[in-house]
Amino acid sequence: MEALGDFRPSTAHTRELGDEVREVRERSGLSLTKLAEGLGWSPGKLSKLEHGRRGGDVVDLIRLVGYCQGDQASLDRILSIAREGETGYIIRPHLDGVPDALRALISSERRATTMFDYESMRVPGLLQTEDYARALMLAGSDPRFAVEPGVQTRMERQEVLHRSQPAHSTFFIHEAALHSWVGDWQVMADQMLHLALTSAAGHLHIRLVPFRGGSQVWTAFPFRLMEFKDSEPLVHSANLTFSVLSERPEVVKRHRAVTEAINAMALSEEESRSEFARWADHYERLRGDDDNAGGPVA
């Protein structure tokens, strides 16, 4: 039987480990109860492990993967995560430049109750149209990596915004992203229209950060701040080749302060919606005149 003292809030680290374990179990076809019975565990112990509410002993994890007849790659990933320990930081590579498939990020997005997302030069991934995402990935892709799987993963990630109890999400998009040409005029027009229409959803708040707010030290650094019902807040930031996730109090405090500054500077939702619609019209008027791409809005 699980001791009451064994309960603990989940962390990005334990959520990532739990998702890996659950995937191994589900691929084996075993129910949670059957696997726990086979390992001599209580169902509660396995459930907490899968839900990120406890860590995993290396020997226990090896037994679990072996009982499920998991492959070596799965075992290597699970043991690598388990051996890292809790440092307050998780660093994960994504050499294809696309962080969408990172389990540590996805598992946290699914559990978040509140999300604040700031993007400086492009539309946030969770708000991108399929064509915009494809054009963006094609423009910066390494020829060794396939683009379409990345596009599909990004579209699947967006389901987190439409689940039965979605996180209360606020997206701040710097005006520079509206000027940054991705694909052709049609891609940009459709993306701007998508932002205008999506911003009407009750649980989504999409706000434009205008140039007139001035240049601040943080404006060039996109990030996401996620909050949870019973776990510590988490900050995610990414560059071309790796992502960093942190729950350290000083990191969260700094990004909260930046979020407050952005909130004070951003246009209202209604003003932002009008701007997105205006930019959609601007790009529509460039039909057949791609030479004018990036020109000023009339």
The coarse overall form would be elongated
Computed Rg: 21 Å
At CATH level 3, the topology of the largest domain is Endonuclease, Chain A
Number of helices: 12
Q: How far is it from the N-terminal to the C-terminal residue, by CA?
A: 69 Å
Mean pLDDT: 87
Pairing-aware structural class of the strands and helices? alpha/beta
Q: What are the secondary-structure elements, in order, as H or E?
A: HHHHHEHEHHEHHEEEEHH
Number of domains: 2
| Strand segment count | 7
Strand residues, percent: 5-15%
Under CATH at level 1, the class of the largest domain stands as Alpha Beta
For the report, how would you describe the main beta sheet?
7 strands, mixed
Helix % is 40-55%
CATH architectural label of the largest domain: 2-Layer Sandwich
Give unreliable regions as ranges: 1-5
In the sheet with the most strands, the strands line up as 1-7-6-5-2-3-4
Let me know the CATH homologous superfamily of the largest domain: Endonuclease Chain A
Protein name: Transcriptional regulator with XRE-family HTH domain
GO molecular function, one term: DNA binding
Domain HTH cro/C1-type: 21-75
Region (Disordered): 1-20
